[in-house]
Design brief:
Elements (H helix, E strand, L loop, with lengths): L1 E4 L12 E3 L2 H8 L5 E3 L2 H32 L3 E6 L13 H10 L9 E2 L8 E10 L2 E11 L2
Parallel strand pairs: 4-7
Antiparallel strand pairs: 1-2, 1-3, 5-6, 6-7
Length: about 150
């Protein structure tokens, strides 16, 4: 199935590109979620008329993501954890914990956008990535310290 992308999709392409995808992926995901429209003559003409509006919206989203990135890059959060022998922490610091710490600072970030390969299981300072937009990724410092 051929579709026209209405917004950048990381593994497929950019706005306006015509890509071939499996029928199920196109019909069940891309089209209902608004990421794409079916590639036929009628939709090609409609898309060309709407292209400038769609690109303006995409540029606005990118600009707001860059603005948020600039704010987040200066933020550091502290997670106080209980420790046992040899400073081993009980449990771990997960993406949800980082999202909660950011919420306390006034940033509403979805935990699925926080990039953690594995939960943080040791004391120290970590750089944690946050995927704000397909083109924009912020870095937040997370301090893991002993709880008093």
């Amino acid at each position: 199935m051929k579709v026209i992308l209405k917004q950048k999709y990381e593994k497929l392409g950019n706005i306006g590109e015509i890509v071939t995808v499996k029928d199920g992926f196109g019909h069940n995901y891309l089209i209902p979620k608004g990421f794409a429209i079916a590639a036929n003559e009628k939709n090609l003409k409609l898309f060309e008329l709407e292209r400038k509006r769609i690109e303006a919206v995409a540029n606005k989203e990118t600009a707001s993501a860059v603005e948020l990135k600039n704010k987040l890059d200066t933020i550091s959060v502290t997670a106080e954890v209980q420790v046992g022998e040899e400073d081993r922490i009980f449990g771990s610091v997960t993406a949800q914990n980082v999202a909660d710490l950011l919420k306390e600072k006034g940033f509403e970030i979805d935990k699925r956008k926080i990039i953690l390969e594995d939960p943080l299981k040791a004391l120290g300072v970590y750089e944690v990535g946050i995927k704000l937009h397909p083109d924009v990724e912020a870095q937040v410092k997370v301090w893991i310290v002993k709880q008093d």
